[in-house]
Amino acid sequence: MKLATTRWVGSLSMLAALGMPGIAFAEYPEQPITYTIPFDPGGESDVTARFQEPHLEEILGVDVNVNHRPGGGGAVGWSEFQNNAEPTGYEMIGVNIPHIIAQPIMRENAGYETDNWKIVTFFHTTPNALIVPKDSPFESLDDLVQYAKENPQAVTLGGSGTFSANHLGALRLEREADIDVTYIPFTGTGPLPAAVQGGHVSGIFNYSMLGVQMQDNARVLAVASEERVPALPDVPTFKELGYDIVGGAYRGVAVPKDTPDEIVNKLEEAFAQTNQRIAEKQEPLGFVMTDITDEEVDKIIQQLKSAYQPILEEAKANQ
Amino acid sequence: MDMLLEALLSILTLEGLVTILAGVTAGLFIGALPGLTATMALAVLLPFTFTMSPLQGLMALGAVYMGAIYGGAFTAILINTPGTPSSIATTFDGYPMARQGRAYEALAAATIASVVGGIVGVTFLLLLAPPLARMAVVFGPAEMFWVAMLGLTLVASLSSGSLLKGLLGGCIGMLLSTIGVSPIGGETRFIFGMPALQGGIELIVALIGLFVIPELISMAAQGRGALPESGKLQGGAGSAVMRMGKHVFSKPINLIRSCIIGQIIAIIPGAGGNVTSLVAYNEARRFSKDPASFGKGNVDGVIASESSNNVMVAGSMVPLLTLGIPGAPPDAIILGVLLMHGLRPGLDLFTQTGVLTNGFILSMGFAALFLLPVGLMGGRLIHRIVVKTPFYFLLPSIAMVTILGTYALRNSMVDVFIMLLLGTVGYFLRLIGIQAAPIVLGMILGVIAEKGYVQTMLAAVVDPIPWLRLVSNPLSIVLACLVVLSVATTLLPGWLERSGRMAKVDRDEEQSP
């Protein structure tokens, strides 16, 4: 019930805000802010929003209401937001790379465009990690690559979703190492620990968090970050091992395109401060905290778009 | 043992007990509202636990979980609407009982069964977690495919009357489950150019539509009237509870079987609580001396369903706490809370932070015990309200709560329209004898079967005959044999009867409406 009523309160106050825009902007924020997560409760995006909520409320001085609009791997929430949200700064939504890059390319009509909003900040990334069972014959990435060269398609790598960060990571490994592996999509991160521990796949491509979580019963061969992940100091990066693979999921928050700059700056500031406060809790879990704003956002999106586009188009042609 | 004692002491404080009581009560009411599931109950109440210590937070959430799964039984019995998907099977006999004026009896039986189930689950978790956890990881994609197939054989027993109509219902359900972005491969299917349909048809939305709306339409058709009161039962409420207690414990086989089924299914990741109560119900009926009475108000059906789904609460913590594998959707939120407090699932959880973990487990046992007073009192209140209210007041209230609940689920008007549409179609399907249960079962299992099959086939890409991978390990062969056996035990008696090789068993052919 809480979810329904907060939404009402949100939209009623929105109406009030529209009536007197001059005053509303002068002292932003003065009403509750709706923070939509386009995924189910319990996932990484949701958990992060829950971490942020109390700090954002303290910094901004108003209520921040987290609600969920899951479906279609985020696409339902995003398309609704781009079509309906008002640029008043009282509505914001969580955005994820590579989802917002891959879905508009791969789907006939995802209902939204990659650039049709203003991304306030990407507040953290979770680099991909290649994880194998504890009793796996692959002691290192080289073992795995060697075996895959001799036995095309025989290595099965699980991951969360299709054309997701995990899938794109596996595809990039195939290109970089010139091997042919079989990628097996699972729905979300939930089933992956069982797939590794039960030996249902040779390994999985998932995020660094799972690598931290599974330290005791699995082996992390490599992580796809620029530098080693603080929570996994002994695990080499793909770059160290000679493969140019950097990537994973970037999580951030967006507002409608025409939102005034003062408001965007205020939110940027609030998220940056929040990040500093929650880093202590999130970093040990395997998150890599970032503060990517303004031009850097465009740079990252362009950079990843050019990395992913050829892979995606080739995959689309093969479908 | 010291650790267990210490853990017990740490929760036996006034603060601890109040936390559990509040959690159970909150969970009960959220669970009783159609559309608000246990997962959502946990998500909504999660921020309140941030200010608490790790143990208190976990205690609160465990209690909410226990209460919410139990709360689903209220609406299942009183208005034929499963408040959470895990109480679908409770409607089969609970609602007929309510129509016969035995609603309070059904509620009492559900309460006692839930309490027992909850405690059994906690006991399994305390004593057998590590060995049971090893079982959780043996279910790979091929095994999951067979588990789903085994589940689909339930259609035969869920379709009272005509097997053909039951199968038709199952197929409709499986077709509905294919709408939206495909679980493997990510293509969009059957969305007819509408981006909003990418999210597919949410199970709960279909559940509410197919169960509630037809019920509302038939209530409206009756006009004046109300559920028959149970007051005329001899001895009133107190003796109903006693009688049910005696009934439950005098024939413990049903209870024991349901609890074991609940535990086994709870540790299969991905099958979750939605299926446990259906399987337990089916087995209760299969082994009953009087299977024909099921679906017409046999209290054993309620007991089987409600005991098994409450075993699942603690039971699904087995793979979660030991291996970090969430057995049912609400567990994902509990996992989030554990990680947030820096607790990593694994055996360390039982040794290094054993006091905390055991405290959490024990608190779920207390939560189960608290269900008894809270449930019996709350049950009387809700029961009195529902039976005292004539249909012309009850109906619009239920309709409103239903629409709000559906909207709140994903903040989506589209879901509300889908719910109403499915409900209307469901009413006419019911008129021609296609029930809601097989449709919902098809929706739940269609996805599991599809994932299992496609993942197995993908992994088998290098094999000469890929489909052999489906029966390549012992467990999947056993499961496949069970599927064949289950189909045979359902179909053979009918076939023998028709061919005249077995005397026709007396079975009343009349179907109650």
Automatic annotation (TrEMBL), chain A:
Swiss-Prot/TrEMBL keywords: Signal
InterPro entries recorded: BUG, Bug_dom1
Keyword Signal in record: yes
SUPFAM superfamilies per record: Periplasmic binding protein-like II
Signal sequence annotation: 1-26
Pfam family, one: TctC
Domain of life: Bacteria
Family in the record: Belongs to the UPF0065 (bug) family.
Protein name (Swiss-Prot/TrEMBL): Bug family tripartite tricarboxylate transporter substrate binding protein
Originating organism: Modicisalibacter luteus
From TrEMBL, chain B:
Boundaries of every DUF112 domain copy: 17-441
Top-rank taxon: Bacteria
Pfam families (alphabetical): TctA
Keyword line: Membrane, Transmembrane, Transmembrane helix
Transmembrane segments: 20-46, 58-79, 106-129, 136-157, 163-184, 196-217, 260-281, 318-340, 360-379, 391-410, 474-496
Protein's name according to its UniProt entry: Tripartite tricarboxylate transporter permease
Lineage of origin: Bacteria, Pseudomonadati, Pseudomonadota, Gammaproteobacteria, Oceanospirillales
